[in-house]
Amino acid sequence: MSISSAYKKSIYFTALVLAVFLQLRPAMASCSFYNGNGLQSYLIKLNSSNVIGDNIILARDQFSLGSTIASGQMPNSVNGDYAICLGNNTYSYYVTGATGSTVGGLRNVFPTNIPGVGLRFFSRDNAGTVYRFGNQGTVGLSSAFRWGWSQNGNTFWGAEIVPTGPIGSGTYDGSLMAVFILDKLTVLNLRVAPFTITASSCSASTTQPVVDLGKHSKRDFPAQGSTTEKKSFNIELTGCSEKGLSTISYTLSPLNNIVDANQAVMAITSKPEAAAGVGVKVMDQNGAPVRFNSVTHVPSFVPGSQAVTIPFQAAMYRTSAVPVVAGVVHAPLTFTMTYR
């Protein structure tokens, strides 16, 4: 039996329409757990030499930005495939409760409720460590049918504490959670077990907020480099933490210009009633010039001590051969502590 030419054309036309319809129909993703698996939840406990129980004792300035204070990880508990999907599917690694990266240059580090302390979640296998859990999510599209871990060897999930500024004290509130979602299926949750940070530091004060250099006549400055009588003053550190402090250092920073760095002479504040031709020289207890804007170790501090005194001296100093002009001498200086 033969088919007429007109009927053949009708068949071809119908087949063409069906082909176009099938190509335009979107591939719908539908993912579900496979082989009895379900939501994988991990509670990461942090460890380091600074951790005593759940308490992390450290100096406020012990770590630099982006370094690791403590970390912890757990091995992945699922072997083989954990989910199956039909068609194209999206996936995302992200952090809930996050407000964004804390400091420029620190990838996927998120602030906690403790000042200066951030958390960073990671995955690790034989290919290395990946900080894939982001604020907006590491999003991708895949047509994979079966989903499983351990493609590059054993998989681990973990988290790190990362300094984002001067470290404060407090107890972590557990508000951050790392999540992996496959299409609309939540596969993985990572949380960090509660921990407390005790930031070790001291309270600084001075016995003389204003050092009185006395009253002097122009005859007391016979030549350039002449100095007046030295006046002693101290910086007192009290309430120092018994644990967590191994060293203390300080930095002296003049708010005015430095006239002579080798002699530690700073300029006086310029104002109508100010003197001219003099500066202020700052020395240690032995009379040696201090080093401005440089970190200086406090040798008298003994770990475990709760108080320490740092003695200094100051004097007026003739800065040039130009005659000295009488007036007020005012030279502010800032004192910054560094704890390790």
From TrEMBL:
<dbReference type="InterPro" id="IPR008966">
    <property type="entry name" value="Adhesion_dom_sf"/>
</dbReference>
<dbReference type="InterPro" id="IPR054160">
    <property type="entry name" value="MrkD_recept-bd"/>
</dbReference>
<keyword id="KW-0281">Fimbrium</keyword>
<dbReference type="InterPro" id="IPR000259">
    <property type="entry name" value="Adhesion_dom_fimbrial"/>
</dbReference>
<feature type="domain" description="Fimbrial-type adhesion">
    <location>
        <begin position="196"/>
        <end position="339"/>
    </location>
</feature>
<dbReference type="InterPro" id="IPR036937">
    <property type="entry name" value="Adhesion_dom_fimbrial_sf"/>
</dbReference>
<feature type="domain" description="MrkD-like receptor binding">
    <location>
        <begin position="61"/>
        <end position="132"/>
    </location>
</feature>
<dbReference type="InterPro" id="IPR050263">
    <property type="entry name" value="Bact_Fimbrial_Adh_Pro"/>
</dbReference>
<comment type="similarity">
    <text>Belongs to the fimbrial protein family.</text>
</comment>
<dbReference type="Pfam" id="PF00419">
    <property type="entry name" value="Fimbrial"/>
</dbReference>
<protein>
    <submittedName>
        <fullName>Fimbrial protein</fullName>
    </submittedName>
</protein>
<dbReference type="Pfam" id="PF22003">
    <property type="entry name" value="MrkDrd"/>
</dbReference>
